[in-house]
Write a structure and sequence with these properties.
115 residues, Jelly Rolls, 0% helix
């Protein structure tokens, strides 16, 4: 089993849910999210951010899409660390980020991929 640490980033996320990371399906991979930092890059205002996990499963134990945060304020000139524990994701699962303001959030997502 190979373990690989990765940093996934996205800049200027705006008002639509934007895919930041998708767990690889081939080879079959389990990913552990070990950190997720959101930075407000708006020129002068607080913004509200949301982070969602979209699961590949459609039913059963892991069949629900969930928000890790929804509409949480990120003050001007600040950042917000939203993962204080570990979150396990399966092959095909997706992390998406959104803001209530256009081009206002930078994302840094740290993951450990296990294949």
């Amino acid at each position: 089993m190979a373990n690989t640490f990765k940093l996934k980033t996205d800049t200027a996320v705006g008002t639509t849910l934007t895919t930041v990371y998708t767990v690889p399906a081939s080879p079959a991979t389990t990913t552990i999210i070990i950190g997720c930092l959101l930075a407000n890059i708006h020129a002068s205002a607080q913004v509200k951010a949301s982070v969602k996990i979209v699961t590949v499963a459609t039913s059963g134990e892991n069949g629900d899409d969930v928000f890790l945060i929804k509409g949480v304020p990120v003050p001007f000139g600040s950042s917000l660390e939203i993962v204080e524990g570990k979150i396990v994701m399966q092959a095909g699962d997706i992390i998406k980020v959104e803001s209530d303001t256009a081009a206002s959030i930078d994302v840094a997502l740290s993951v450990l991929e296990q294949t």
